[in-house]
Amino acid sequence: MNRHSQSIRRSTTLTAGILSAVLTVVPPAIYFVMAFSHMTGVIETEGEINARVVGTLVVANPKMWEFEELRLKELLARRSTDTAETRVLYNLKGQVIAESSDQVLRPLLSQAFPVYDAGHQVANLVVSRSLAPTLMVTTLLFCLGALAAGFTFFRLRTVPLRAIENAYRNLKQSEEKYRSVYESLNEGLALYRTIPVGGAEIDLVLADINPTAVSVFGFGRDDIGKSILQLQGGLFAPVREALQGAPAEVSLELTQEGAGRVFTVNAFAMGDGMVATLLEDVTEKKRSAEQLENLAYYDSLTGLLNRRMLLDRMEHTLGTAQRDGIKMATLFFDLNGFKPINDTMGHEAGDQILIEVARRLKSSVRKKDTLARLGGDEFVVVATLDTEDNASCIAQNLLRKLAPVYEVGGREVFVGASIGISIYPDDGTAPETLLKNADIAMYNAKKPGIEFCFYSAQMNQKLQERTRLEFELWMALEREEFFLEYQPIMDARTGRIAAVEALVRWMSPEKGRVMPDSFIPLAEATGIIVPLGEWVLKTACTKLRQWLDAGCLPIRMSVNISGCHFMRSELCRMVEEAAEQTGVDLGLLELELTETCLVKDVEETAAKLWYLKGLNVSIGIDDFGTGYSSLQYLKNFPIDHLKIDRAFIKNVCELPDERAIVEAIIGIAKAMELHVIAEGVETLEQAQYLAHRGCDELQGYYYHRPLSEERLLEVLREERERFEQGTVGGACEAGAGGGADVAAPVAVME
């Protein structure tokens, strides 16, 4: 150690000295050279500029310039920087003609610059700056460098020796830690010395053991020096056999007969003819693994098979059905009425019901059948059968078992079930396919009056068509394939267009023109109605703004708002954004809502409607009379218009009951000072009757079908011309355009 320390001391001393000298001299030298060069460049620039300025004065006064001392001093006093410097103008005889008044410290850095008159030198300008600041900073850097050099020299001299001492100390500590870890390991550690016994074979002789090997694995200190074949009755003999041929590492699992204990042994070479074996008792781990494996295949709540084990059993049953040439039924259960019970009575009550359902199903299926719970309230039964009729019998029997009431928390509740059935090989040949098809059939069984339903290709086709149509709807939004048509709403008193209703249409590249009945229900079910409704609202406002800018008179624009759209979106914010973006007066906008969406959340609905009313938006109830007609919401909500559903208008002139309903609606609306609109007006007789009964506005094919924007504007122009000529009579005589297309709220052309 001393020899190495002396060598390191000499080399570090030399290195420290060189580095210290560099730190002391180089930084101040570099600074001085750079500062001196910079000052020289500045002086040259300043001197040349001032020499030219003085030369200009000389040229202007060739005879008298030497007597212009004040002007010369003024020129010499001009500075481009705040740094002090002296400027002295000498004639060719060396006499001072003028000089600046700056005072600078010595030593000075000076340069002379000639002053010319017509190409002849007539004077010299000497510019000087003080070197004192530069020398002071250089001295300061020298001192700082000396301090840094001293610190560096000290560190380089002491650190290596301390590192050596720390290395030896750490080595000693590592040995102590190794011994501590060796003795405190939870695993048993046994060290063996390899001894050749002839040929390529070796024997392992125990050299050392840690305390865990003694206390847990039964080794003793008197075992040291014995062959591995003599230890623990030859339990570890396989380790010796596995190490023949000098493998780098072996891992074995050994079972101690009689005690039922299981050990894992990891043996690896340590060098110098030593082999270490790490012993671990994994008896409890093995038991836990078996329990976990059991949990991985069974539902923890009901004890039934889970999905993973179900698929495995289905594979086995499919093989049997294929081999024996029989059918296999997959019955997919979903409990009816379970979610409300779970939500109102709590999850503990829901768990009790699931356990009871599992018990009833277990008692109903055959031993050779498979019963599983997929999760939630979904169960599956897999059974082999001779005909599909047997599957019906199984389903009916299971439904009877599930029908009796359940006692939960001292209450009696009823839980039914819907069952979807898929048959192998008709509906699929793979477990996942049969499960999927049974699931599809189960959803069809949710319809009223149906308890179980077989899968059919038509069901799957409808599902695929629904999925494809949903994708096409999203793409249609992105590709801007939707457009609006407009149906005029006529004033029953004057016969003129009072408003237009915006109606969305879809022009699909593949399907052509698609009517709303084909895609609106799916759009509502999937949530696409929200972005679609936003597009309709903003587009309708944009069109209305364009019509107004084109010279149309203000007219009401009616936009249908889906109940899903009304409840799930920020409708008020959307209306404000549409008004802000288009600049349209919200007093011309009418939102049509259905009765069903008004009664879902009365408080939230009222808040939204009153907010919209504060924006001056008109609120109309569409299809009035077909939903939850209630005087309560007519009284509490800020409703402006009631639109009588076309179902009541169709036979209003033929059926007394229909007339009574229509007259009652009109009477209620008038009593509550509400505006009444009748839609679906298709005949002159209907128009006359409704107008005479006090209906305010009329809409239907008798007047106009839904119109394109271009056709609507033409109709408005024609109407204006007719009224200007006085040829248009009352409301009942105004309808003659029964062949036009759909229209939306628009303005009458001026």
UniProtKB/TrEMBL annotation:
Instruction: Kindly indicate whether the keyword Transmembrane belongs to this entry.
Output: yes
Segments forming a coiled coil:
none
Q: Which UniProt keywords apply?
A: Membrane, Transmembrane, Transmembrane helix
Q: Where is the GGDEF domain?
A: 326-457
InterPro entries in alphabetical order? Biofilm_reg_signaling, EAL_dom, EAL_sf, GGDEF_dom, Nucleotide_cyclase, Rev_trsase/Diguanyl_cyclase
EAL domain location is 466-720
At the top level, the lineage of the source is Bacteria
Which CDD domains would you find in this protein's record? Answer: EAL, GGDEF
Task: Give TM segment ranges.
Answer: 12-34
Q: Does the keyword Heme apply?
A: no
Listed PANTHER family: BIOFILM ARCHITECTURE MAINTENANCE PROTEIN MBAA, DIGUANYLATE CYCLASE DGCP
Entry protein name: EAL domain-containing protein
